[in-house]
Amino acid sequence: MSTTSTLKPATQKKPPSYQDNSLSDHYFRWFSSTIADTPEKVAQAHRLRYDVYCEETGFEPKELNPDRQEKDPYDAHSAHAVLTHLPTDSVIGTLRIVLPIPGAPGADLPARLASRMLDELPFLPKETTGEISRFTVAKKFRMRKEDTLYPAVYEDQGEKAGDVRRVLPHIALGLMQTVFEITLRHKLTHLCAIIDPALLRLVRRLGLEFHKVGDLIEFHGWRQPVYCDNQEILQTVYNNHRDVWDVITCRHQDILDGLY
Fold first, then answer.
1. Distance linking the first and last C-alpha atoms of the chain
2. What is the pLDDT of residue 27?
3. 23-153+160-259 classified as CATH 3.40.630.30
Protein backbone atom coordinates (compact mmCIF):
# COMPACT_ATOMS: atom_id res chain seq x y z
CA MET A 1 0.00 0.00 0.00
CA SER A 2 1.47 3.31 -1.05
CA THR A 3 1.95 6.05 1.48
CA THR A 4 2.18 8.76 -1.20
CA SER A 5 -1.50 8.95 -2.10
CA THR A 6 -3.03 12.35 -2.67
CA LEU A 7 -6.56 11.00 -2.36
CA LYS A 8 -8.54 12.92 0.20
CA PRO A 9 -10.41 10.78 2.76
CA ALA A 10 -14.01 10.08 1.84
CA THR A 11 -16.40 12.46 3.56
CA GLN A 12 -20.11 12.28 4.02
CA LYS A 13 -21.62 15.69 3.25
CA LYS A 14 -25.21 14.71 2.58
CA PRO A 15 -27.15 11.49 2.05
CA PRO A 16 -27.57 10.39 -1.57
CA SER A 17 -30.97 10.08 -3.18
CA TYR A 18 -32.76 6.86 -2.27
CA GLN A 19 -33.73 5.07 -5.47
CA ASP A 20 -33.51 1.48 -4.37
CA ASN A 21 -33.52 -0.70 -1.27
CA SER A 22 -29.79 -1.36 -1.10
CA LEU A 23 -27.66 -1.76 2.00
CA SER A 24 -26.11 1.66 1.46
CA ASP A 25 -29.49 3.33 0.98
CA HIS A 26 -30.59 1.99 4.36
CA TYR A 27 -27.33 3.11 5.94
CA PHE A 28 -27.35 6.69 4.65
CA ARG A 29 -30.97 7.05 5.70
CA TRP A 30 -30.25 6.18 9.33
CA PHE A 31 -26.61 6.90 10.16
CA SER A 32 -23.67 9.26 9.74
CA SER A 33 -20.13 8.29 10.71
CA THR A 34 -17.40 10.90 11.20
CA ILE A 35 -13.92 11.30 12.61
CA ALA A 36 -14.13 12.95 16.03
CA ASP A 37 -12.00 15.96 15.17
CA THR A 38 -13.32 18.41 17.76
CA PRO A 39 -13.15 18.32 21.58
CA GLU A 40 -16.93 17.95 21.78
CA LYS A 41 -17.01 14.94 19.44
CA VAL A 42 -14.17 13.29 21.36
CA ALA A 43 -16.07 13.95 24.60
CA GLN A 44 -19.16 12.28 23.08
CA ALA A 45 -17.05 9.21 22.33
CA HIS A 46 -15.71 9.12 25.88
CA ARG A 47 -19.20 9.51 27.37
CA LEU A 48 -20.54 6.59 25.36
CA ARG A 49 -17.55 4.50 26.41
CA TYR A 50 -18.32 5.38 30.04
CA ASP A 51 -21.93 4.28 29.64
CA VAL A 52 -20.89 0.88 28.27
CA TYR A 53 -17.57 0.08 29.95
CA CYS A 54 -18.20 1.66 33.37
CA GLU A 55 -21.97 1.73 33.90
CA GLU A 56 -23.14 -1.32 31.95
CA THR A 57 -20.32 -3.87 32.09
CA GLY A 58 -18.04 -2.68 34.88
CA PHE A 59 -14.99 -3.41 32.71
CA GLU A 60 -13.51 -0.07 33.78
CA PRO A 61 -13.84 1.46 37.28
CA LYS A 62 -16.15 4.44 37.69
CA GLU A 63 -13.89 6.00 40.32
CA LEU A 64 -11.12 6.45 37.75
CA ASN A 65 -13.50 8.31 35.46
CA PRO A 66 -15.27 10.81 37.74
CA ASP A 67 -16.26 13.10 34.86
CA ARG A 68 -18.30 10.24 33.32
CA GLN A 69 -15.89 10.01 30.40
CA GLU A 70 -13.96 6.74 30.03
CA LYS A 71 -10.35 7.48 29.05
CA ASP A 72 -6.93 5.87 29.16
CA PRO A 73 -3.37 6.93 28.23
CA TYR A 74 -3.69 5.55 24.67
CA ASP A 75 -6.29 8.19 23.84
CA ALA A 76 -3.49 10.74 23.63
CA HIS A 77 -2.23 9.13 20.41
CA SER A 78 -5.50 7.88 18.95
CA ALA A 79 -7.94 8.98 16.26
CA HIS A 80 -11.56 8.63 17.34
CA ALA A 81 -14.76 8.02 15.37
CA VAL A 82 -18.40 8.57 16.28
CA LEU A 83 -21.53 7.16 14.67
CA THR A 84 -24.67 9.32 14.83
CA HIS A 85 -28.23 8.04 14.58
CA LEU A 86 -29.75 10.66 12.29
CA PRO A 87 -33.43 10.49 13.36
CA THR A 88 -32.51 11.28 16.99
CA ASP A 89 -29.21 13.12 16.36
CA SER A 90 -27.58 10.97 19.07
CA VAL A 91 -24.16 9.32 19.16
CA ILE A 92 -24.75 5.58 19.35
CA GLY A 93 -21.37 4.13 18.34
CA THR A 94 -17.69 4.88 18.68
CA LEU A 95 -14.24 3.39 18.23
CA ARG A 96 -10.67 4.58 18.08
CA ILE A 97 -7.58 3.79 16.07
CA VAL A 98 -4.53 3.83 18.32
CA LEU A 99 -1.74 5.35 16.22
CA PRO A 100 1.76 3.85 16.42
CA ILE A 101 4.74 5.34 18.21
CA PRO A 102 7.48 3.46 16.30
CA GLY A 103 10.30 3.83 18.85
CA ALA A 104 8.23 2.58 21.78
CA PRO A 105 7.88 -1.09 22.82
CA GLY A 106 5.21 -2.67 20.64
CA ALA A 107 4.90 0.75 18.95
CA ASP A 108 2.81 1.54 22.06
CA LEU A 109 -0.19 -0.38 20.74
CA PRO A 110 -2.07 -2.32 23.46
CA ALA A 111 -2.57 -5.33 21.16
CA ARG A 112 1.11 -5.63 20.33
CA LEU A 113 2.06 -5.24 23.98
CA ALA A 114 -0.43 -7.94 25.04
CA SER A 115 0.28 -10.47 22.27
CA ARG A 116 3.90 -11.41 21.63
CA MET A 117 2.93 -13.41 18.53
CA LEU A 118 1.13 -10.41 17.05
CA ASP A 119 4.00 -8.06 17.86
CA GLU A 120 6.57 -10.34 16.23
CA LEU A 121 4.83 -10.68 12.86
CA PRO A 122 7.56 -9.50 10.45
CA PHE A 123 5.11 -8.01 7.93
CA LEU A 124 3.36 -5.67 10.38
CA PRO A 125 5.48 -2.51 10.15
CA LYS A 126 5.88 -0.62 13.41
CA GLU A 127 5.63 2.72 11.59
CA THR A 128 2.33 2.17 9.75
CA THR A 129 0.27 -0.34 11.76
CA GLY A 130 -2.58 1.05 13.85
CA GLU A 131 -4.93 -0.69 16.27
CA ILE A 132 -8.72 -0.84 16.29
CA SER A 133 -9.84 -0.37 19.88
CA ARG A 134 -12.83 0.53 22.09
CA PHE A 135 -15.46 -0.56 19.55
CA THR A 136 -18.60 0.54 21.39
CA VAL A 137 -22.33 0.43 20.61
CA ALA A 138 -25.02 2.06 22.78
CA LYS A 139 -27.08 -0.40 24.81
CA LYS A 140 -30.42 0.69 23.32
CA PHE A 141 -29.21 -0.57 19.94
CA ARG A 142 -28.42 -4.01 21.39
CA MET A 143 -31.83 -4.99 22.73
CA ARG A 144 -32.45 -8.31 20.97
CA LYS A 145 -31.79 -11.58 22.76
CA GLU A 146 -29.06 -12.60 20.26
CA ASP A 147 -27.07 -9.36 20.78
CA THR A 148 -24.02 -9.28 23.04
CA LEU A 149 -21.92 -6.13 23.31
CA TYR A 150 -22.24 -6.06 19.52
CA PRO A 151 -25.41 -6.22 17.41
CA ALA A 152 -25.89 -9.61 15.79
CA VAL A 153 -26.07 -10.02 12.02
CA TYR A 154 -29.35 -11.43 10.79
CA GLU A 155 -31.79 -11.24 7.88
CA ASP A 156 -34.49 -8.58 7.61
CA GLN A 157 -37.33 -11.04 7.07
CA GLY A 158 -40.12 -10.68 9.60
CA GLU A 159 -39.01 -7.30 10.94
CA LYS A 160 -41.40 -4.39 10.95
CA ALA A 161 -40.84 -1.89 8.18
CA GLY A 162 -39.03 1.14 9.51
CA ASP A 163 -37.74 -0.60 12.63
CA VAL A 164 -34.23 0.81 13.11
CA ARG A 165 -33.04 -2.57 14.38
CA ARG A 166 -33.47 -3.94 10.84
CA VAL A 167 -30.28 -2.06 9.94
CA LEU A 168 -28.17 -2.84 13.00
CA PRO A 169 -25.32 -4.28 10.87
CA HIS A 170 -24.88 -0.74 9.54
CA ILE A 171 -23.56 0.30 12.94
CA ALA A 172 -20.50 -1.88 12.40
CA LEU A 173 -20.22 -0.87 8.75
CA GLY A 174 -20.54 2.82 9.56
CA LEU A 175 -17.76 2.65 12.12
CA MET A 176 -15.58 0.63 9.73
CA GLN A 177 -16.17 3.31 7.09
CA THR A 178 -14.44 5.79 9.40
CA VAL A 179 -11.70 3.27 10.20
CA PHE A 180 -10.63 3.30 6.57
CA GLU A 181 -10.92 7.07 6.39
CA ILE A 182 -8.52 7.26 9.35
CA THR A 183 -6.09 4.82 7.70
CA LEU A 184 -5.90 7.07 4.64
CA ARG A 185 -5.51 10.23 6.69
CA HIS A 186 -2.68 8.76 8.76
CA LYS A 187 -1.14 6.66 5.97
CA LEU A 188 -1.60 3.37 7.82
CA THR A 189 -0.93 0.21 5.82
CA HIS A 190 -2.12 -2.38 8.37
CA LEU A 191 -4.43 -2.71 11.34
CA CYS A 192 -4.36 -5.05 14.33
CA ALA A 193 -6.66 -5.70 17.26
CA ILE A 194 -7.42 -8.02 20.14
CA ILE A 195 -11.05 -8.60 19.40
CA ASP A 196 -14.08 -10.19 21.02
CA PRO A 197 -14.96 -13.34 19.02
CA ALA A 198 -18.56 -12.05 18.67
CA LEU A 199 -17.32 -8.86 17.00
CA LEU A 200 -14.96 -10.86 14.79
CA ARG A 201 -17.88 -12.99 13.59
CA LEU A 202 -19.88 -9.85 12.91
CA VAL A 203 -17.28 -8.14 10.74
CA ARG A 204 -16.47 -11.37 8.91
CA ARG A 205 -20.10 -11.93 7.99
CA LEU A 206 -20.09 -8.42 6.62
CA GLY A 207 -17.18 -9.33 4.33
CA LEU A 208 -14.32 -7.81 6.35
CA GLU A 209 -11.71 -10.56 6.72
CA PHE A 210 -9.23 -10.20 9.56
CA HIS A 211 -6.52 -12.85 9.96
CA LYS A 212 -6.23 -14.66 13.29
CA VAL A 213 -2.89 -14.83 15.09
CA GLY A 214 -2.58 -17.75 17.49
CA ASP A 215 -5.21 -18.74 20.05
CA LEU A 216 -7.54 -16.71 22.24
CA ILE A 217 -5.83 -14.78 25.02
CA GLU A 218 -7.15 -13.29 28.25
CA PHE A 219 -7.51 -9.55 27.66
CA HIS A 220 -10.56 -8.21 29.51
CA GLY A 221 -12.18 -11.56 28.68
CA TRP A 222 -11.13 -14.09 26.06
CA ARG A 223 -10.10 -12.24 22.93
CA GLN A 224 -8.61 -13.11 19.54
CA PRO A 225 -5.50 -11.30 18.21
CA VAL A 226 -6.06 -10.36 14.56
CA TYR A 227 -4.57 -8.19 11.82
CA CYS A 228 -5.35 -7.05 8.29
CA ASP A 229 -3.58 -5.52 5.33
CA ASN A 230 -5.69 -2.46 4.48
CA GLN A 231 -5.19 -2.72 0.73
CA GLU A 232 -6.00 -6.43 0.75
CA ILE A 233 -9.18 -6.12 2.81
CA LEU A 234 -10.54 -3.23 0.74
CA GLN A 235 -9.76 -5.02 -2.52
CA THR A 236 -11.57 -8.15 -1.27
CA VAL A 237 -14.63 -6.14 -0.25
CA TYR A 238 -14.62 -4.32 -3.60
CA ASN A 239 -14.46 -7.62 -5.50
CA ASN A 240 -16.98 -9.60 -3.45
CA HIS A 241 -19.26 -7.30 -1.45
CA ARG A 242 -20.14 -4.19 -3.44
CA ASP A 243 -23.03 -3.35 -1.11
CA VAL A 244 -20.62 -3.27 1.84
CA TRP A 245 -18.10 -1.36 -0.28
CA ASP A 246 -20.69 1.36 -0.95
CA VAL A 247 -21.13 1.92 2.78
CA ILE A 248 -17.54 1.83 4.02
CA THR A 249 -16.30 4.08 1.19
CA CYS A 250 -19.33 6.42 1.12
CA ARG A 251 -19.81 5.31 -2.50
CA HIS A 252 -16.46 6.73 -3.55
CA GLN A 253 -15.82 4.07 -6.17
CA ASP A 254 -12.34 5.45 -6.96
CA ILE A 255 -11.02 5.18 -3.41
CA LEU A 256 -8.84 2.16 -4.29
CA ASP A 257 -6.81 4.38 -6.62
CA GLY A 258 -5.45 6.08 -3.54
CA LEU A 259 -4.10 2.81 -2.14
CA TYR A 260 -1.54 2.10 -4.88
1. 6
2. 84
3. yes
